[in-house]
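Thread: "does anyone have the structure for this chain?"

Original post by V.I.:
We have the sequence but no experimental structure in hand. Need at least a predicted one for the grant figures.
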Amino acid sequence: MPATGRWSEDAEIISSIGVALALVRDTVERVIPNPTPDALKAIRREAFEAAVALGASPDAVEVTIEIDSRTQRVRAIAIGASEMRAAERTSEVTETEALGIAAVP
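Reply from O.Q.:
Generated one for you, C-alpha cells below.
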C-alpha cells in the first residue's frame, strides 16, 4: 500500500500502545569456568530481576540459559510480557475511562 503522506490522527497514542505491549528482554552474560548449579541459579535470577525491573510481569518472564563451554561464557536471556500486556482484562473500558488512563498527570 503506497504511503499517503498523512499522519494518523492518533499517531502518538498508537505509538505509546505499541511500546506498552512490547516484550521486555534483558541478557546477562558472564565468563564462568565450570559453572556450578548455584552459579547458574544466580545468573538466572539476575536476568529475571533485570527484566522485571524493565517492566515485565514476574509471572510472564521466561529465562533461558546458554553455556558455551569453549569460551566459558554463560548467558541468561530473560524475555517477558510487560505488565500491561500480561494483565487480564475483566471488563471493557469506556472512552471516558480510557481518556482518564491516558491523561498526563
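V.I.: this helps a lot. Residues 22-85 form one domain.
O.Q.: and The first helix runs from residue 11 to 21.
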